[in-house]
Amino acid sequence: MTLHIVSKSPFSSTALSDCLDAFGDGDALLLIEDGVYALSGRMAEQPAVKPVYCLAADAAARGLQIPASVTAVDDAGWVALCTEHNPIVSWFK
Amino acid sequence: MTKRLLALCRQAPYGNALAREGLEAILAAAAMEQVADILFCGDGVFQLLPEQLPADIEQKSLQRNLQALPVFGVEQAFICSKSLAQRGLDIDTLVQGELVLVPVDDSAALIASYDSVLSF
Amino acid sequence: MRSILIDDREIPLDKEGFLRELDDWTPVVAEQLARAEGIELTDAHWEIIELLQQFYREFELSPAMRPLVKYIGQHLGAEKGRSIYLMQLFPPSPAKIGSKIAGLPKPTNCL
């Protein structure tokens, strides 16, 4: 199923909301770069969206805690997600 | 087996180059006889508003360019129903030409049916 | 800079021989651009040139090979809507050479 990668803050871009409108059963969501700002509250409102992954280095760099409902991944984990899913959709703007 | 390609077009025309780049990618793929489809969602649905007159801002009409899709072999374009509704648009008020607009309620299932998705 | 001379007027071309100013196009300019490609224009050429210009007015872009073949077929029938026919008129690359002679911009996706 589809891997959705969101790299913009949900407070400055429609990337996350557009992505969630196109999120299906069995899909996965990966937050990277400014996409990790979704961790500050927004994801808690979306219980239907799972699994959610987050690039640990991007969250740490921005001083964000990763909640228990979100799985932290490193670069190798990101690559693994890409090989496990198809297609991959990048929501980058 | 032929790879199926989807261009996901989320940007309004003219404000940045992404809308045009999405169209160019699809036209290039179609010219190479690939299976290439297009899904308009988010502000991308604004690309289909009729009577765009961008000459005074020194741009080519994207709406006219889009009408070239059928002659390039792309007969239909998918359009996200929810994005239309959010923007108060009705599919019947959008550009009507050779290009058949197909409303999509479940974009997740549509996206999942492709081998590759390009975002614009 | 490359150019062609017509009635003492210098008409600038880009390095591939396309008109720099699309407004410079006239039938006489077309004949000279064709001659530079080794093509003598006949009625068969002119009906394609007119359709290339119609294509550009309709879609505001220059055609690639496949859409050109389809468009010509729609307007002039299946006999002329074939790549071999267009190849004979505008060798070796009908979309590109035809667009050049018709005064259209270089096709951006002429693959």
UniProtKB/TrEMBL annotation, chain A:
Signal peptide extent: none
InterPro entries listed in its UniProt record: DsrEFH-like (IPR027396), Sulphur_relay_TusB/DsrH (IPR007215)
Pfam assignment, any one: DsrH
Cellular component aspect of the GO annotation: sulfurtransferase complex
Superkingdom of origin: Bacteria
GO biological process, one term: tRNA wobble position uridine thiolation
PANTHER family hit by this protein: PROTEIN TUSB
UniProt-recorded name of the protein: tRNA 2-thiouridine synthesizing protein B
Organism: Microbulbifer marinus
Higher taxonomy: Bacteria, Pseudomonadati, Pseudomonadota, Gammaproteobacteria, Cellvibrionales
UniProtKB/TrEMBL annotation, chain B:
Pfam families: DsrE
SUPFAM superfamilies assigned: DsrEFH-like (SSF75169)
InterPro entries for this protein: DsrEFH-like (IPR027396), Sulphur_relay_DsrE/F-like (IPR003787), Sulphur_relay_TusC/DsrF (IPR017462)
Family listed: Belongs to the DsrF/TusC family.
Cross-referenced PANTHER family: PROTEIN TUSC
Protein name: tRNA 2-thiouridine synthesizing protein C
Source organism: Microbulbifer marinus
Phylogenetic placement of the source organism: Bacteria, Pseudomonadati, Pseudomonadota, Gammaproteobacteria, Cellvibrionales
UniProtKB/TrEMBL annotation, chain C:
Residue stretches spanning the membrane: none
Enzyme class, first EC level, given as a word: transferase
MF annotations from Gene Ontology: sulfur carrier activity; transferase activity
GO biological process, one term: tRNA wobble position uridine thiolation
Chief location bin: cytoplasm
UniProt keyword annotations, A-Z: Cytoplasm, Transferase
InterPro entries: DsrC-like_C (IPR042072), DsrC-like_dom_sf (IPR025526), DsrC-like_N (IPR043163), DsrC/TusE (IPR007453)
Name of one Pfam family that matches: DsrC
EC number: 2.8.1.-
Compartment(s) where it occurs, according to its Swiss-Prot or TrEMBL record: Cytoplasm
One of the record's GO cellular component terms: cytoplasm
Catalytic residue list: 110 (cysteine persulfide intermediate)
Family: Belongs to the dsrC/tusE family.
Function of the molecule: Part of a sulfur-relay system.
Protein name from the UniProt record: Sulfurtransferase
Lineage: Bacteria, Pseudomonadati, Pseudomonadota, Gammaproteobacteria, Cellvibrionales
